Amino acid sequence: MEDALIIRDLHVRVEGKPVLRGVDLTVRKGEIHALMGPNGSGKTTLAYVLMGHPAYTVERGEVLWKGQNVLELPPDERAHLGLFLAFQYPVAVPGVTVANFLRTALNERRKRLNPEDKGIPIPEFRKLLREKLAMLGLEESFATRYVNDGFSGGEKKRLEILQMAVLQPEMAILDETDSGLDIDGVRTVAEGINRIFGPHMGILLITHYQRILNYVKPHFVHVMYNGRIVASGGPELALELEEKGYEWLREQFAEQPTA
């Protein structure tokens, strides 16, 4: 199933401590899956493992994408296969402008898809970048600033979505893209996600709160607790979580084994 990201029985440790305890999840192109759960439940760990963060040790399980177990690949190879991660806490890269960063990344992706590609012409790239900046409510001067250097929390999150808009990945993992945003920022970022999303892309949207799901409508909602996905359903599940909170998870799953 090359149009789906398939996670099977994924067990992960961090510094010797079990964090993911058997995660099973399938995200297909053309689907938005919201992954919710309390802090410390393993949501961000899952995102980092999918993209190959070296601090995490995979004990067993597999992650299939385009016929390959991507756990065997370095992060850059996963990106070239069309996987994308929007970070919860993006890092600054002083000295590298947003425009140069995006053009370099786009040209590298184009080259992997077609080794004879000479790169996007500068006028064409400028036109593309202006369109994407406008889509996210960003001034054109934003492109001349250094990557995340001195950015507000909202600007950092917009840049993550700008990267997704320019690179057009086939499977996007968005790790709490709404955290640190006010309601207008959430709406703007959500509108950008909605414009980018389509049948060519799958999205795993990790969030702690239901509010971004008022604007980005998921096809499926999953609840993670104690390193496992313990409940799945439709959008109504997110509304139930908003009403009930996460305390019922502790009550219902406290007695389950943790390893």
CATH class of the domain at 4-91 and 169-253: Alpha Beta
**CATH superfamily (homologous) name of the domain at 4-91 and 169-253:** P-loop containing nucleotide triphosphate hydrolases
- As a percent range, the share of helical residues equals 25-40%
Proportion in β-strands: 25-35%
| Total count of helical runs of at least 4 residues | 8
The number of distinct β-strands equals: 12
Strand order of the largest sheet: 6-9-10-3-11-12
SSE class:
alpha/beta
Distance between the termini: 30 Å
Q: If you compute it from the alpha carbons, what radius of gyration comes out, rounded to the nearest whole angstrom?
A: 18 Å
Q: At the third CATH level, what is the topology name of the domain at 4-91 and 169-253? A: Rossmann fold
Main beta-sheet strand count, sense and barrel state: 6 strands, mixed
Oligomeric status: single chain
Order of helices and strands: EEEHEEHEEHHEHEHEEEHH
Query: Overall pLDDT, averaged?
Result: 92
Q: Which CATH-level-2 architecture of the domain at 4-91 and 169-253?
A: 3-Layer(aba) Sandwich
